[in-house]
Specification:
alpha+beta; five-stranded antiparallel sheet; 909 residues; 3 domains; 13 helices; Neuraminidase; six-stranded antiparallel sheet; Transferase(Phosphotransferase), domain 1; 62 strands
């Protein structure tokens, strides 16, 4: 019978049941002596039936408790209370590697990092004479601090005391720390261990051949299992499988798995060798120590594999659909060869060659919007990189050689944005997970260069200097391509209304560069939007031309976009001056005014690529249930939604919508029942950040004037009546939440020169209305939300190194409680304050049960509701029963990309 909350086992107080399995129950408990949370595993009575077994178990447990390592789950204590045998262990928060692998292969960077940590933990144990014997994904916990190996070494003692029934029960454990980690050859029974095709799953898929033959395990046995785990992390597949127990064992004893590089073509060549060595059938042919395996993985991370030949891609036509796609791509391939012929031979005055490039099969280009993968051709004109999203919503960078039919995805680039090339066309730099990273185009794991919270594309010179914008409202920074701290090279001029410097690009001398200076509050014609000429050697800058666009220099021309027309203007790169008028290169080029970016790229030798279509992320609205299934069909026209807010009664939507030409935002109201949409804000400048009053009678929003004044105003939601100015200032201020009693408005502020990043302030709507800071630190605090009772504020902060959600008492001061785990963006209160939903960094909609009372705040364990990676925006309905998402139609992202070789020839006619 499970133990109840409050039960005492020695000095440990049981708090809650975490899970159960054949090895007993696991509880969350409190060590009353040290006042810390622990996990307690209560063992079945059959383990203590034999005094010899019990004493042997206790001796080995004491030995393992001496293993102090950051990647081994610590065993704190062994106890016996009223006939109950129990273990006291480190309480881990996270998920098992097995759970993560259910979603597929891991990025190469994570495979290598986790592999190094596992190998280091094994090495520590092996040096103390302890062999794990049951290394498998279910025994690897993924936590914030890295991997943790579970139940280290206990299997040998326990395996003799469990019969086949016990093992079967153990396999059904409901909590990662509750499973049976038993390593005799298990008897696998029941459909829970079979796929629909009849492939057996179970512990013995990770066993070494000598284990299956009944020989004694030694450290090299663990190394074989380690190789199986590495293989599964890298490919998302089991290394060995079979349709029966006998065939599976036969495969482990005799067969070699398909090489990792066959399944993941961008795998570093040396990684294949590491896995192959770990999986050698003869223990003498494996790495003899886990330390040796760790050193090999570290060598790959440090770039030792980059000189190896790229893995060969084996292509198989599996269907008529794929064959038809390949035939259609023939024309593109021919154009690619023609382009390479142009690249490799001395230039001749031939007519430009135009062709189209389609996204990879079953994917869609991800070129527009803030999460854009952009579109970039290598300086040598031979390869294109871009982002594409598959039907599941997973987005990766892809590499397309122009002399090949197919593109290939680049592992480790999940969620990558704004890629750009190194000058030798060897590396691709990109932004992901709040970092600037680089990856060898020939293969290898991505390497971090520096922090970049919301990076905007950069430029890389031959001296190894990278220019980039680390956020959307900052100046241009420089950093060494080898890594290090970034330092600013430009400075925003607030007197000119500048709120962003971005799209830096080096000129051929590698010292001078161009960049765009713009303001988020001005339209296309504003003088604040200009292209500047600057230098690494001077703080001076010169206005070169007026444009609200990125700019590139290629073949003696500056290329940029004006009113969706791609222009080329002659430019003398030695004298640093324009030498002629702009000439059109293409019409209807994809231009996103919200991010001042046009989708084009040019090589150093006359190859140009650009995308057509409309800018922004035009999405339609759709309701979904709590499992992520659609409720009815999408509704409304495709619109570039930036943010939206559902009214308290759930009947209307206030949305900030970007103008398709200028990018300026305005507030529109939608009535769900009537299916109508009407404009709510009028006048010059922009209107952004709509927030409903608690009774739904008013809407507060920010009005950004072209005069650079910024006001928070409120207006009746009926559309009648005038605006009331609630707060007037400058810089970015954005209302986020109205307190339930209507007396306070929480807003965020970020001045261009602010040293405290984004802060949360409170505006009283009574008395002298003097704002006061709620959170103003050196970290980013955002997405504030009042609780339904007004006693708490939910917010996001990156104080831990990544954004997480916290709850703090209002108006403060007081302790805060962390809500999310593994990173989060904005959250919402639901069900009268008993639930919080939020979007995780890997784009899952999450739910956490919470409870607040006079004694404090309690939180449950976050759980996944559904994958929301296809949504550009998401808000929970106030009822808590459904979710509103803005989703970009798949067809809108399949417009072909245009490739033009020898484009300058058209300008010389």
């Amino acid at each position: 019978m499970p133990l109840t909350s409050g039960t005492r086992l020695g000095p440990y107080e049981i708090l809650a049941l975490l899970g159960s399995g054949g090895m007993g129950e696991v509880y969350r408990a409190r060590d009353t002596r040290l006042d810390r949370s622990v996990a307690i595993k209560v063992l079945p009575e059959r383990l203590s039936s034999s005094e010899e077994v019990r004493q042997r178990f206790e001796r080995e447990a004491r030995t393992i408790s001496q293993l102090s390592h950051p990647h081994i789950c610590a065993l704190y204590d062994v106890g016996r209370e009223s006939g109950i045998e129990y273990l006291v262990m480190e309480l881990l928060e996270g998920k098992t590697l097995e759970d993560r692998l259910a979603r597929g292969a891991l990025p190469t960077e994570q495979v290598l990092r986790f592999g190094i940590e596992i190998a280091d933990a094994l090495d520590k144990a092996h040096r103390q004479g302890i062999v794990h014997r049951d290394l498998k994904p279910g025994n690897v916990m993924l936590t914030k601090s890295g991997v943790k190996l579970l139940d280290f070494g206990l299997a040998k003692t326990l395996e003799r005391s469990l019969d086949a029934t016990g093992r079967e029960q153990a396999a059904a454990g409901q909590h990662p720390m509750a499973g049976a980690n038993v390593t005799a050859l298990p008897t696998v029974v029941g459909s829970a261990n079979l796929t629909q095709e009849g492939t057996i799953l179970g512990t013995f898929q990770y066993m070494a051949p000598e284990q299956l033959e009944g020989h004694e395990a030694d450290p090299r046995t663990d190394i074989f299992s380690f190789g199986v785990v590495l293989y599964e992390m890298a490919t998302g597949r089991k290394a060995f499988s079979g349709t029966s127990r006998a065939s599976l064992i036969s495969n482990i004893m005799k067969e070699e798995p398909v090489p990792v590089s066959t399944i993941q073509p961008m795998t570093p060549p040396a990684f294949d060798r590491v896995v192959r060595t770990c999986l050698a059938k003869d223990p003498e042919d494996r790495f003899q120590t886990a330390h040796d395996a760790k050193l090999q993985l570290q060598w790959i991370v440090e770039g030792g594999s980059q000189a190896g030949a790229p893995a060969v891609v084996v292509s198989r036509r599996r269907s008529r659909e794929r064959m038809a796609w390949s035939v259609a791509a023939g024309a593109i391939l021919a154009a690619g060869f023609a382009t390479l012929g142009y690249v490799r031979r001395a230039p001749v005055e031939t007519a430009p060659i135009r062709s189209s490039i389609l996204p990879p099969e079953k994917t869609a280009f991800e070129i527009g919007g803030e999460d854009s993968g952009s579109l970039t051709i290598s300086p040598d004109g031979r390869r294109i990189t871009f982002a594409a999203k598959d039907p599941s919503g997973k987005k990766l960078l892809w590499l397309r050689p122009l002399d090949a039919v197919a593109a290939r995805s680049i592992p480790g680039t999940e969620g990558a944005t704004w890629p750009f090339w190194s000058p030798d066309s060897r590396f691709i730099a990109f932004f992901a997970e709040g970092k600037l990273k680089k990856v060898d185009a020939a293969g290898g794991p991505p390497l971090t260069v520096c922090d970049a919270k919301r990076g905007r594309s950069g430029s890389w010179n031959r001296d190894g200097v990278i220019l980039f914008s680390p956020d959307s409202t900052v100046a241009v920074d420089r950093v060494s391509a080898g890594g290090g701290a970034a330092t600013p090279v430009t400075r925003l001029d607030e007197s000119k209304g500048e709120t962003t410097h971005r799209w830096a690009t080096f000129l051929p001398d590698g010292r001078h560069f161009l960049y765009m200076a713009g303001t988020h509050a001005a339209g296309t014609g504003s003088k604040a939007n200009v292209i500047y000429l600057a230098s690494l050697d001077s703080k001076d800058r010169t206005v070169l031309l007026h444009a609200r666009s990125n700019v590139a220099f290629a073949s003696g021309y500056l290329i940029y976009v004006l009113e969706k027309t791609l222009l080329a203007q002659p430019f003398d790169a030695k004298r640093l001056r324009l030498t002629g008028d702009p000439v059109p290169l293409g019409d209807s080029v994809l231009y996103d005014p919200s991010y001042f970016r046009a989708a084009f790229s040019a090589s150093d030798n006359g190859v140009l690529v650009y995308a057509g279509g409309t800018g922004g992320s035009k999405a339609r609205l759709a309701w979904y249930d709590r499992s992520g299934k659609p409720i009815g069909a999408p509704f409304g026209d495709p619109i570039d939604y930036r943010m939206f807010s559902i009214s308290p009664d759930g009947k209307r939507l206030a949305a900030e919508v970007a103008d398709s030409t200028t990018g300026a935002g305005d507030i529109w109201l939608s009535d769900f029942a009537r299916g109508t949409r009407t404009r709510f804000s009028f006048g010059s400048g922009e209107s952004i950040c709509p927030v409903w009053s608690p009774d739904g009678s008013r809407i507060a929003f920010t009005r950004m004037e072209k005069t650079l004044l910024t006001r928070i105003v409120a207006r009746p939601s009926s559309g009648g009546g005038g605006e009331e100015t609630l707060l007037q200032g400058s810089g970015d201020i954005c209302p986020k939440s109205w307190s339930p009693d209507g007396r306070y408005l929480a807003y965020e502020t970020l001045a261009a020169a602010a040293k405290t990043k984004s802060d949360i302030w409170i505006l009283p709507l009574f008395g002298d209305r003097k704002p006061f800071p709620f959170l103003a630190t050196q970290f980013d605090e955002q997405f504030s939300r009042f609780s339904p009772d007004g006693r708490w504020v939910l917010y996001s902060s990156d104080e831990s190194g990544r954004p997480e959600l916290y709850v703090a008492p209002f108006p403060g001061p007081g302790s805060k409680w962390q809500i999310s785990a593994g990173g989060a963006s904005g959250g919402e209160w639901l069900r009268g304050g008993k639930e919080i939903t939020y979007l995780s960094l890997d784009l899952n909609q999450m739910s956490v049960q919470v409870k607040a009372d006079a004694s404090g705040f309690e939180t449950g364990v976050p759980r996944v509701l559904f994958d929301a990676s296809n949504a550009t925006l998401l808000r929970s309905d106030p009822s808590g029963d459904r979710e509103l998402m803005a989703v970009v139609p798949q067809t809108a992202q399949n417009t072909p990309v245009t490739l033009v070789s020898n484009w300058p020839a058209a300008l010389r006619k």
